[in-house]
Amino acid sequence: MKLCWKDPIAALQVRPVRGGFAAEKRSRVAGKESVGDVLRLAPPPRATADVARAGGTTRPRPTHATRDFRRSLRRAMASEDEFYADIRSADGTYKFLVDGAWRESSSGRTCGSVAPADANAPAYAFQACTQGEVDEAFAAARAAHRQWARTPLHERAALLHEVAAEMRAHHAPMAACLVREIAKPAKDAKTEVIRSADLIDYAAEEGVRALGVGTLLHADSFPGAKRDKMCMVSKVPLGVVLCIPPFNYPVNLAVSKIAPALIAGNAVVIKPPTQGTVAGLHMAECFRRALVTRGAPAGLVNVVTGKGSEIGDYLTSHPGANLISFTGGDTGLSVAKKANMVPIQMELGGKDACLVFPDADVNLAASAVAKGGFSYSGQRCTAVKLVLAFENIADVLVESVSKKIEALKVGRPEDDADITALVSKASADFVQGLVEDAVKKGAVLKQPWRREDNLVWPVLVDHVTDEMRLAWEEPFGPVVPVVRVKTEEEALKFVNESKYGLQGCVFTKNVDDAIRVADLMETGTVQINGPPARGPDHFPFQGVRDSGIGSQGIINSIDTMTKAKSVVINLAKPSYALA
Question: Residue 579: enclosing H or E segment and its boundaries?
Fold first, then answer.
């Protein structure tokens, strides 16, 4: 495979095929045609093989493994029908959850998710909740919170361990929904569910430790005061937490909000993403069965579904919410503006840069770029979204990353392909627009551009400059730009002048350089000699600027979802303890 064209405008011709892109050489003069001619949407060629490698020319089609997966899925779903039976209506439409009961909406309307890997064919239908039903969810949560907050801490933890056990025992349908709704590779879908169960267990244990300790203050530590006052400070729940997870981790990033909220004594109202709703409903049933059937308050976990355009603003401005925990994109900026005196915890994306110094281990850095940039097709807030390579190492690094891209498997999520369909056509269109802009302004594609419906083949875009959108905007797709820099100051400009500030990483063998540069990077987290990553889930996770507000990670979330309450004992006269 030829990896580089010095003039992509002159070198690439897109010919019409059914559902994707195909590139071929042409002899037209560079600059006389629009970049749209270079990257024009067209259908794919007929397949000559089952799975395409990155840069290949064959179309991914259902394989024997795919068919085996679907057969095993049908068997798994059949065996789980009884456990999850309550969440579906007779016609197969999924219900919503309020006060411990699965219900159909009084609106009589439904919404739907699509299957990104199947040309956005309909996947599932679920309820379009009304504002009145949102009110009911908050009312149920408020009533449940008052009882749950009086439940002994060790009992809350024990019930959360039961939730984790249910999720592990009944993970298959939930994982299958992730494959269907968001095109998550099957192995990664199962990992997300099991990781979420682990998070619940950890949150339960961490909550027992953290919330079982209070603070006692004596007055005489302050100048002029005597030891005649004692202040007992404890952490108490906020009340009702509104949890809004994103499409890319609709189970894990829901659980990362729900588990800390519950162990702290709060109740929750959840609004799952449209793509990922049904996986979220399966998750909620694990909570309901483990909690409500064992005596927990019925309204402890509530789930409302529907279009964000219809109930989103109503949810986020609802007076019943005592904290909003939101993970997503720029929508969070408007949510923050409407959060009337309500604490907010937000992670809104990033433009995570990878700085590669001349002395870096090239293979280590290249592996991190390939893994960090293309895992789950780049649809991760912590994906590598910009490589800042010093000029004297850039050629070797780019070549090494390109070889690793060749090894990536492009195909269907059931087959555990590395690169699967993006979540929507709009996402693929946006990624294409960024690449078009970069190519038009002189960037070099190291792999042929190719797209079939939502499926975008992985591309390393070299010689990106600061005038290109790709240098600043978050693609959320399998496209990684490389900017060649001469100085450390030039590299830091791309990090610190970005509107984002979630994570970044530094590759160098010099620990002094690593720490110094990490200190200068204005981001929530800096990884040294490793790619950006959210986990492990108990690590603090936060961003600056438009990347978010507050901090996540299990203990930080527990702290965010509680508040201090002081009880002051006034003594008749000073008392000093002796032993």
Answer: none
Task: Give, for all 579 residues of the chain, the pLDDT tens digit.
Answer: 332 333 332 332 332 333 332 333 333 333 333 334 444 333 333 333 334 444 443 445 666 666 666 666 566 556 567 899 999 999 999 999 999 999 999 999 999 999 999 999 999 999 999 999 999 999 999 999 999 999 999 999 999 999 999 999 999 999 999 999 999 999 999 999 999 999 999 999 999 999 999 999 999 999 999 999 999 999 999 999 999 999 999 999 999 999 999 999 999 999 999 999 999 999 999 999 999 889 999 999 999 999 888 898 999 999 999 999 999 888 888 888 878 789 999 998 999 999 999 999 999 999 999 999 999 999 999 999 999 999 999 999 999 999 999 999 999 999 999 999 999 999 999 999 999 999 999 999 999 999 999 999 999 999 999 999 999 999 999 999 999 999 999 999 999 999 999 999 999 999 999 999 999 999 999 999 999 998 788 888 888 898 889 888 999 999 999 999 999 999 999 999 899
Long-range contacts of 28-36 (CB under 8 A, 24+ apart): 33/9, 35/9, 35/436, 35/437, 35/439, 35/440, 36/436
| Bridging pattern class, strands 444-445 and 503-507 | unpaired
Task: Given the residues 80, 166, 347, 474, select the one marked as catalytic.
Answer: 347
As its CATH architecture, domain 93-152+216-347 has 3-Layer(aba) Sandwich (3.40)
Q: Annotated catalytic, 111?
A: no
Q: What are the φ/ψ torsions at residue 19 (nearest 5 degrees)?
A: 95, 10
Domain ranges of the chain: 8-61+350-528, 93-152+216-347
Q: Which fold has domain 8-61+350-528?
A: Aldehyde Dehydrogenase; Chain A, domain 2 (3.40.309)
Residues 408, 419 contacting (CB under 8 angstroms): yes
Task: State yes or no: is 243 an active-site residue.
Answer: no
Which of the residues 111, 129, 354, 381 is marked catalytic? 381
